[in-house]
Specification:
The N and C termini lie far apart (52 Å). It is globular and about 60 Å long. It has three domains: 53 residues, no CATH class; 323 residues, TIM Barrel; 70 residues. The longest helix is centred in the last third of the chain and has 20 residues. It is α/β, with parallel strands linked by helices. It binds S-adenosylmethionine (SAM) and iron/sulfur cluster. The site of S-adenosylmethionine (SAM) has 21 residues, from strand 2.
């Protein structure tokens, strides 16, 4: 009879040293703390002209160099910061147009073998109520999320043998299998893109995830500062291996998952260092694979069950600095999508959406089973951390529509093979943004017909008319009449009841 693996023998087989070593250059990884500190020091008082030159480079959709990013991080003049903020939104509009992509997180399990000092899921936290969802429960959660109008999910897991790659793959397939009828239109709907946030894996396991049909694979380095990393991730845990995590996304690329998502947990160490770390990570992915990250995340640490660090860190990032780091990231990696999550309060979300963020979540419940079991979701001991914006999707969509942004549920890029270097090449030539605009309108149209409240529908319809007017008058589309015609006919078909049409 086959014995169930115990946590202790399972963890011993996770890290494959050759799958770290193969990416090192002369035995070294791409984070050199001394180099980061000296770039920050060398560029400590950049001239106004230099900053303006850097802003021009971002506007031409080029990844900045470490010196350039360090210079931006050292700006002190409030007026110059205003120029930076303004340019960040301009860059976003140029690359991604005025759309905001919506998604929902689905927490599948809070079992974890690690002991990250900031996280409620850590093994030593006896207060956490442990639970792993069955496939039926995952389907129920998916149905509840679909009722809100979502089309994109990110599944989140602790690291544990009970939520191993086979469990994750089954979860992905379970999500895709669910069909739910939209109350307002009676049309069937399902999740069209499942992303994953899970611990680093070896390449053969990542290939299994790819085979299950995942979109993006997301791993946050948490902190790029090696000494801090060792302090918050005990050495005797899998997560204690800094380099295993640092190359998680290189391995994903090698496994054929070409949309990878990086991030840092802000509040563990100096925010300027972390921004530099994210840039070096981008540059190393570009060097190895010719393409950078699909998205960048910059979660700020929020209070977690049983974690004093999570509510009392000397490195906590103020709202002012948060704005700065978002804008500098937007300018440093113009092609990357940027995700602000419900960890942030509504007011901050509003601010950073105007600084170039491209994606956000809404109707967010992070308790295990919290979507379908209609729990209040306010008990810290059933989840990973605290959220700042629990508002429903409809409310957030209405708000962004008032700000002039169009909500998008587009999953076309991934389904049409516009991923990895194809999509990044298109983004750098500002072509993908045009497709996004069309697909945003089509998916927003679906949302308005199927789920929106009356107020959101009214507002959304006038925004759509404005968008269509812009599309009709754009030279890019005038030169591509076949695209415009296809868009027009798909738009009418959606009004007539068809669903899931894209370009
Ligand atoms: N266990 C996997 C791992 O560590 O990669 C999945 C990640 S965890 C469930 C998702 C992310 O939540 C972490 O990578 C971390 O950045 C973030 N997180 C953990 N504790 C947090 C806190 N107190 N506040 C905000 N974000 C937190
Ligand atoms: Fe586990 Fe991830 Fe939380 Fe660390 S951050 S304790 S690995 S769930």
């Amino acid at each position: 009879m086959e014995r169930e693996p115990t946590a202790s023998n399972w963890v011993n087989h996770i890290i494959v040293q050759e799958e770290i070593d193969k990416y090192l250059v002369k035995g070294k990884n791409f984070i050199n703390s001394q180099e980061i500190f000296s770039k920050l020091a060398k560029n400590s008082s950049p001239s106004q002209e230099k900053i303006r030159d850097i802003l021009q480079k971002s506007l031409s959709v080029k990844t900045l160099s470490p010196d350039e990013t360090a210079a931006l991080l050292n700006v002190t003049s409030p007026d110059l910061w205003e120029e930076i903020f303004h340019t960040a939104l301009e860059v976003k509009k140029k690359v991604y147009d005025n759309r905001i992509v919506f998604f929902a997180p689905l927490y599948c399990s809070n079992l974890c073998v690690n002991n990250c000092a900031y996280c409620g899921f850590r093994e030593a936290n006896n207060r956490e109520v442990r639970r792993i969802l069955s496939m039926d429960e995952i389907k129920r959660e998916t149905a509840s999320v679909l009722k809100e109008g979502h089309k994109r999910l990110i599944l989140v897991f602790g690291e544990h043998y009970r939520s191993d790659v086979d469990y994750m793959s089954a979860a992905v397939k379970a999500v895709y299998s669910v069909e739910e009828i939209a109350l307002q239109s009676g049309r069937a709907s399902s999740i069209r893109r499942v992303n994953i946030n899970a611990a680093p894996m070896e390449i053969s396991k990542l290939q299994i995830l790819k085979g299950a049909g995942i979109g993006t694979y997301q791993v946050f380095q948490e902190t790029y500062h090696p000494e801090t990393y060792q302090t918050v991730h005990p050495e005797n845990t899998v997560k204690g291996n800094y380099q295993w995590r640092l190359y998680a996304l290189h391995r994903a690329m090698d496994a054929g998952i070409d949309d990878v998502a990086i991030g840092a947990l802000f509040g563990l160490y100096d925010w300027r260092f972390e921004v530099m770390g994210l840039l070096y990570h981008t540059l190393d992915l570009e060097r190895h694979f010719g393409v950078g990250p699909h998205t960048i995340s910059f979660p700020r640490m929020t209070p977690a069950s049983g974690s004093s660090l999570s509510s009392d860190s000397r490195w906590n990032v103020s709202d002012d600095d948060f704005k700065k780091l978002v804008a500098v990231l937007r300018l440093s990696v113009p092609t990357a999508g940027m995700i602000v999550t419900a960890r942030e309060k509504a007011e901050i979300k509003r601010t950073v959406l105007k600084l170039g963020c491209t994606q956000t979540d809404a109707s967010t419940r992070i308790g295990i089973g919290a979507y379908s079991e209609l729990k209040k979701d306010n008990d810290l001991d059933t989840k990973q951390f605290t959220i700042g914006d629990p508002r429903d999707l409809d409310e957030v969509i209405q708000e962004v529509a008032r700000m002039g942004f169009i909500a998008s549920f587009c999953t076309a890029g991934y389904r049409c093979g516009r991923t990895g270097d194809t999509i990044m090449g298109m983004l750098s030539h500002c072509d993908e943004g045009k497709f996004c605009k069309l697909n945003a309108v089509l998916t927003f149209r679906e949302y308005l017909s199927d789920y929106a409240s009356d107020a959101t529908r009214q507002l959304g319809e006038s925004l759509i008319m404005k968008e269509i007017g812009e599309i009709e008058s754009m030279d890019y589309f005038k030169k591509k009449p076949h695209l415009l015609n296809k868009f027009r006919s798909e738009y009418s078909e959606i009004l007539g009841g068809k669903r899931d049409l894209y370009l």
